[in-house]
Write a structure and sequence with these properties.
Length: 805
């Protein structure tokens, strides 16, 4: 058997019946998935074998839910569910009521409603100007903004107004402005809804919005003190001064007036011809049924300050004076500043004296820019916003002395010599002395150097001027000269520098950086820099170049003069080392010469050898000797010996011989007595070969007479030096050699000896050794002689012009 279910629902209120028709063995009801409650007016009825009925009496929102009819048998189970919704219009749970509260407290207006759906509660406030009813009014329909109850606007919530979820509104720190009618509305869309107007009363205690006040009046004017009290009337206001109740009838200058205002009462206290004694704190006391409050008003009666007291001088300086004083009565107005007035003690107070302003919070001041050593009169006046008070008593103060503030005048400097200057001056302007002038400092320094001044002290002269001579100065030098005056306190400023130049002198320093360079065998170029500035001692007019061969010891030097810083010297000896120095000269004379430098002229070809000899030394040999050139003009590199032979009336030149620069002899061997021979020789330097000697002729013979190959000549020897005089002789048989001094035979001694080779040796030459020293060589075939002319120099080194073989 299959179950069959048919359900019919009747949802009419206040009673609801649900029908369930089925073909089944079993049937029943459920609510919200559970058993149907047997209370709340719910009953079930079985109408017949196929129908059952669920009945709900006095239906309400609590009966909302889903109801299910179930049918089952052995074959199957069937069910049907229907939802029951009961709509309930709003109704009061807590109805709003009129309320009152003290200003500043917290108050709650209740407005709680129920229904289904849940009602929405809103609050509105009557627009200002609506009349106040004596109680609330309840309305069963919606109240609009233009209803008979007046105009309302939505209530604005914030920190002081808050609404709860149950509809109640809370006012915190309630103020008088919150007083008025409030409309509570509850709606859920079912029916007309609920609304009610209630009145909130705020009881305002007496109070002053401003607790403190200040009134400032000028002495003799009328002072009005105003106290506006707010709160519910009636309000009483009383006055007190400095804690004592004020009786307006006790002083005819005191009057109290009152005036009602919209939200309270204003009390005014008027004081005519305000005096200094009226300066005090006035208190107004306000009270009503709900509270009391006070307001303090400070009355300040102002006037000009009084006279500063105890004015005295604290410090004195040369250009400033420090004063102090006691602050006077300020006149109930802060002293803005003090005016220090001053003048010369010798003069009356002018209409507008000199003054110095000092801030009012100070009771001392310093007057600057005064004149040193001067007496002044001083006074002080206080000033506030009302004006100047009475000046203090006058005191006198004198400034201290100070070093002079002006320089000496008309400073003049003139040269007296090359090392001295004359300085004269006049005193500073009289008003700049700042005391008695005791003397002067005269300073000077080299104008070219930024060094400190050298000072010397000069006593004050007639008419307080002065003069001085500066000595020990540098020659022809620009000097800066300054003068400053001094008194007991010190020295004043320097005068403007005066530039003066000492007279010229001969240069005391030589030219610098002397340089020379050989330009040829007979010329050199010399250059230099001027003497240092400090040693020129004047205008350099020119230079003298002093030169001489370095080997020449003489006080006489050649000179070359020029205005330039270089010159060329010509006509010098070839390949000669010259000593060169340079001096500068001014119009005052020649300066000191520089230390010599040495410069050698360039090499040239040498002169011819100074002499040549060719002597027969045997029947088959000829000895040729020669002297070095008197002027070598360079470094000898070689000698060239030329030879020629005449045989049978025919001259034939033989191959030349090259000899070293140290060789001065040559032995020609293999000569024949039948021939005649010629010899000549030349010298060479790096620059080339010089001219040859004259030719000498010799004819060998079998008889070889004595001959001397050495050369005599002048010879200078320094005193007490040793000297050897050569006398090289040849001949067959060997010649005999004798020596004579001034035609007298020389007797050998320990100091004078004739050596085996024929030379004469003199040790420790004396002046007595000077003269003609002759050597003679002789054999059986002939004789030969040479003579030396010996000069003994006491201070100079020997200079031997001949070379001795």
């Amino acid at each position: 058997m299959v179950a069959y279910l048919a359900v019919a629902l009747n949802k009419q209120a206040p009673k609801t019946m649900d029908y369930c028709e089925m073909l089944s063995e079993h049937a029943g009801w459920e609510k919200d998935g559970g058993s149907v409650p047997i209370y709340d007016g719910i009953t079930t009825r079985l109408l017949d074998d196929y129908q059952t009925q669920l009945v709900i009496d006095r239906i309400s929102s609590r009966h909302n839910g889903e109801y299910t009819c179930l049918a089952s048998n052995a074959a199957a189970t069937r069910h049907y569910t229907a939802k029951l919704t009961v709509n309930v219009p709003p109704h009061w749970v807590t109805e709003p009521q009129d309320s009152g509260a003290a200003q500043g407290s917290t108050v709650t207006l209740n407005c709680q409603a129920d229904g289904y759906p849940t009602p929405t509660v809103t609050w509105k406030k009557a627009i200002m100007g609506e009349s106040v009813s004596s109680g609330g009014s309840s309305m069963g329909s919606n109240t609009g903004s233009n209803s008979g109850q007046g105009d309302y606007q939505e209530l604005v919530y914030g920190a002081h107004v808050e609404v709860f979820n149950n509809g109640s509104v809370v006012f915190r720190n309630v103020q008088k402005a919150m007083e008025g009618k409030y409309l509570c509305q509850a709606r859920n869309g079912i029916g007309a809804g609920l609304s009610k107007v209630v009145y909130l009363t705020v009881n305002a205690p007496a109070h002053f919005p401003e607790k403190l006040g200040r009134v400032v009046v000028r002495l003799g004017q009328t002072a009005v003190l105003r106290c506006p009290a707010h709160g519910d009337r009636p309000i009483d206001i009383l006055w007190s001064v400095d804690g004592r109740r004020l009786d307006p009838h006790a002083d005819p200058r005191v009057e109290v007036r009152e005036e009602s205002i919209e939200d309270g009462l204003v009390s005014e206290l008027a004081l005519t011809s305000a005096a200094r004694s009226h300066s005090a704190t006035y208190t107004c006391h306000a009270a009503n049924a709900f509270g009391r409050d006070t307001r303090n008003i400070e009355l300040v009666v102002q006037e000009e300050p009084e006279q500063p007291k105890n004015l005295r001088v604290v410090e004195t300086h040369s250009r400033r004076v420090k004063l102090s004083w006691m602050a006077p009565y300020s006149g109930n107005s802060p002293i803005q500043n003090y005016l220090i007035q001053y003048k010369l003690a010798s003069e009356p107070w002018p209409g507008v004296p000199e003054k110095l302003s000092v801030p009012g919070d100070q009771t001392e001041g310093i007057i600057h820019e005064l004149t040193p050593a001067t007496a002044y009169h001083l006074r002080v006046t206080a000033q506030n916003t009302l004006g100047l008070g009475t000046p203090s008593e006058v005191i006198q103060a004198a400034t201290d002395e100070e070093e002079p503030s002006g320089p000496p005048l008309d400073v003049r400097v003139t040269p007296e010599s090359s090392t001295s200057l004359r300085v004269t001056w006049e005193p500073p302007a009289r008003d700049l002395w700042n005391g008695n002038i005791l003397g002067y400092y005269v300073g000077y320094r080299n104008h070219a150097h930024a060094a400190d001044y050298n000072f010397q002290t000069v006593e004050v002269g007639s008419a307080y001027g002065g003069s001085s001579t500066l000595s020990g100065l540098q020659q022809y030098t620009r000097y800066e000269v300054v003068v400053q005056a001094f008194n007991n306190r010190g020295a004043g400023p320097l005068s403007a520098p005066v530039i003066a130049t000492t007279e010229e002198d001969a240069p005391s320093l030589p030219p610098e950086t002397i340089r020379c360079e050989a330009t040829s065998a007979k010329s050199v170029s010399v250059a230099w820099r001027p003497p240092p500035g400090q040693g020129q001692n004047g205008l350099i007019k020119g230079y003298r170049v002093l030169y001489m061969p370095a080997s020449q010891y003489s006080d006489e030097e050649a000179q070359a003069e020029t205005a330039a810083e270089s010159t060329n010297i010509f006509n010098l000896e070839k390949f000669t080392n010259y000593s060169i120095s340079v001096l500068a000269y001014t119009s005052a004379g020649d300066g000191v010469p520089s230390q010599p430098i040495f410069c050698t002229t360039l090499q040239d070809v040498p002169d011819a050898p100074a002499g040549i000899k060719a002597v027969v030394s045997s029947s088959t040999t000829i000895l040729v000797t020669w002297l070095a050139p008197l002027k070598v003009n360079g470094v000898l590199t070689k000698y060239t010996l030329y030879m020629a032979v005449s045989s049978e009336q025919r001259m034939r030149e033989l191959p030349s011989r090259t000899l070293g620069p140290g060789e001065t002899s040559y032995v020609a061997e293999g000569v024949s007595t039948r021939d005649k021979y010629e010899f000549w020789v030349s010298a060479s330097t790096q620059r080339g070969e010089g001219p040859p000697t004259e030719k000498v002729y010799v004819h060998p013979t079998t008889k070889v007479s004595a001959q001397i190959a050495s050369f005599g000549g002048p010879l200078e020897v320094a005193w007490k030096e040793d000297v050897r005089l050569q006398c090289h002789s040849v001949g067959e048989p060997p010649p005999h050699v004798t020596w004579k001094h001034n035609s007298k035979n020389i007797i050998p001694t320990d100091r004078i000896q004739v050596r085996p080779n024929g030379s004469l040796f003199i040790r420790d030459v004396q002046k007595s050794d000077a003269g003609n020293l002759s050597c003679t060589a002789a054999n059986t075939h002939g004789a030969d002689s040479i003579t030396y002319i010996l000069t003994v120099q006491e201070t100079f080194k020997a200079s031997w012009e001949g070379y001795v073989m």
